[in-house]
From TrEMBL:
It comes from Exiguobacterium marinum. Belongs to the glycerate kinase type-1 family. GO terms for molecular function: kinase activity. Keywords: Kinase, Transferase. Gene3D superfamilies: Glycerate kinase, domain 1 (3.40.50.10350), Glycerate kinase, domain 2 (3.90.1510.10). This is Glycerate kinase. The keyword Nucleotidyltransferase does not apply.
Length: 367
C-alpha cells in the first residue's frame, strides 16, 4: 500500500516529525511517505525546512516571552530573500512552566524579525499558533522601534506588557526596513482581536486567563486597539497568537491558512493522487479541528482524490467524519492513565494504536 503520513504535532508531547516517525514504526512493509505538517503553530518551520532544500537555519539568542534569553531558530532562503518565522519558537506555551497572560510578551518575535531584516529578507512569513501571550503584538512592535505610552506620557515596559496602561503610540522609531517587506501570516484561526470570538474569549483561558478576567481583558484589548490609526479590531486573523496577528495586520500583512501553505510547499496534492491512504492526526480532534485545523484540511483534500483518511488522536468525541473523507478516528490511549502518563508515553501509544488497526489499512484498498 502507498500511504501518506502527515501527522500534526501533539502539543506538549510530540512534534509533527516525531508523530510521523511513531506511525511509520507500525507500517513496515508498506510504501510510506511522511510529510511534516503544521497549520501555523508548532512544526511550521520544520515543514518549511523539509520542503526548501536551499533554506538555511538561523539560530540566535533572543529574549523570549518571559524575558529569559533562549536560542531560537528561523529560516532564510537567500535566493528568494524569504524568511520564515514560527511564533512558537520564542512565545510558545511549551517554553513555560506556568502561564501568566498579564506578564508575557511577544518581544522575541520582533527580535527575530530584526535578525531576518539583517539577513536581507524582503518576504517574511510568520506562522501563528501555540503562543503563551495575549499582548496584542505590543512586544514585537516594541522590538521594531515602536513606543507605547501611558496617560502621563511615560514609556511602558515590555515585560510585564502593561497592555492595560497603553494610551498612545509613537511610530517614529519604527525600523524603516519594515515598510519594504511583504508580510504574510499563516494561521489556523480567523478570530478577530476583540469580541466574543476574539483573543481573550476564545484563547485567553488556555493562556491562563481566569473566567472572571476574560471580559475585562477583552475591554483592555479594545482600548489598546483604539490607539492605532487603522481600525482592525474585527479583521480576521487579528486574534491569532494572542493578538500577534493584529500587529502584523497593522504592518500590512496578508492572512492565509497555514495548512494551505504547507500543502503547497510539500506538493501534497501530487502525493495524494497516487496514495491508497492518508494517515493524519493531532493531540485533540474536536469541533475546533473542523474549523480548519491541519488534519481536517488534509482529509478534505484527500477526499477530492477519493483517498480515505484515518485520524489518530489523543482525545476525540468523534468516531468518524464521513463528509470530509475521515472513515475512522482512533484515540491512542489504550488503558486508564493520567494525562501526564499519556503525554510521556505518546510515541509508543501512537505506534501501538496504528498497529491495532493495520489490518483495516491492508484489507480495505482504495476504491
Amino acid at each position: 500500500m502507498r500511504i501518506v503520513v502527515a501527522m500534526d504535532s501533539f502539543k506538549g508531547s510530540l512534534s509533527s516529525m516525531e508523530a510521523n516517525q511513531a506511525v511509520m514504526h507500525a507500517l513496515d512493509g508498506h510504501e510510506v511517505i511522511a510529510i511534516p505538517i503544521s497549520d501555523g503553530g508548532e512544526g511550521f518551520l520544520d515543514a518549511w525546512f523539509t520542503t526548501h532544500e536551499d533554506a538555511t537555519v538561523v539560530e540566535e539568542v533572543v529574549p523570549c516571552l518571559d524575558g529569559v534569553e533562549r536560542t531560537a531558530r528561523f529560516g532564510f532562503e537567500p535566493s528568494t530573500k524569504h524568511a520564515v518565522i514560527e511564533v512558537a519558537e520564542t512565545t510558545g506555551l511549551t517554553l513555560l512552566s506556568h502561564v501568566d497572560p498579564w506578564r508575557y510578551s511577544s518581544i522575541g518575535v520582533g527580535h527575530q524579525i530584526v535578525q531576518a531584516l539583517d539577513c536581507g529578507a524582503s518576504v517574511i512569513t510568520v506562522g501563528l499558533g501555540g503562543s503563551g501571550t495575549i499582548d496584542g503584538g505590543k512586544g514585537l512592535l516594541e522590538a521594531l522601534g515602536v513606543r507605547f505610552f501611558d496617560t502621563f506620557g511615560s514609556v511602558l515596559s515590555t515585560i510585564p506588557h502593561q497592555l492595560h496602561e497603553v494610551a498612545s503610540i509613537d511610530w517614529s522609531g519604527l525600523d524603516p526596513r519594515v515598510r519594504n517587506v511583504e508580510w504574510r501570516i499563516a494561521s489556523d484561526v480567523r478570530n478577530p482581536l476583540i469580541g466574543e470570538n476574539g483573543a481573550a474569549h476564545v484563547f485567553g483561558p488556555q493562556k491562563g486567563l481566569a473566567a472572571d478576567e476574560v471580559i475585562r481583558y477583552d475591554e483592555i484589548l479594545e482600548s489598546y486597539a483604539n490607539c492605532f490609526e487603522q481600525d482592525m479590531r474585527i479583521w480576521q486573523g487579528g486574534g491569532a497568537a494572542g493578538g500577534i496577528g493584529f500587529a502584523f495586520l497593522q504592518l500590512g500583512a496578508t492572512y492565509m491558512k497555514g495548512i494551505e501553505e504547507v500543502v503547497k510547499w510539500s506538493k501534497m496534492e501530487e502525493l495524494l493522487k497516487e496514495a491508497d491512504w492518508l494517515i493524519t492526526g493531532e493531540g485533540k480532534f474536536d469541533a475546533q479541528s473542523l474549523e480548519g485545523k491541519a488534519p481536517y484540511g488534509l482529509a478534505r483534500l484527500a477526499h477530492t482524490y477519493e483517498v480515505p483518511t484515518l485520524v489518530f488522536t489523543g482525545q476525540s468525541d468523534y468516531t468518524s467524519h464521513v463528509e470530509s473523507g475521515i472513515v475512522a478516528i482512533f484515540p491512542i490511549v489504550s488503558r486508564v492513565m493520567t494525562l501526564e502518563e499519556a503525554i510521556w508515553e505518546a510515541a509508543p501509544l501512537l505506534t501501538n494504536a496504528v498497529r491495532r488497526v493495520r489490518h483495516v489499512i491492508e484489507k480495505a484498498p482504495r476504491q
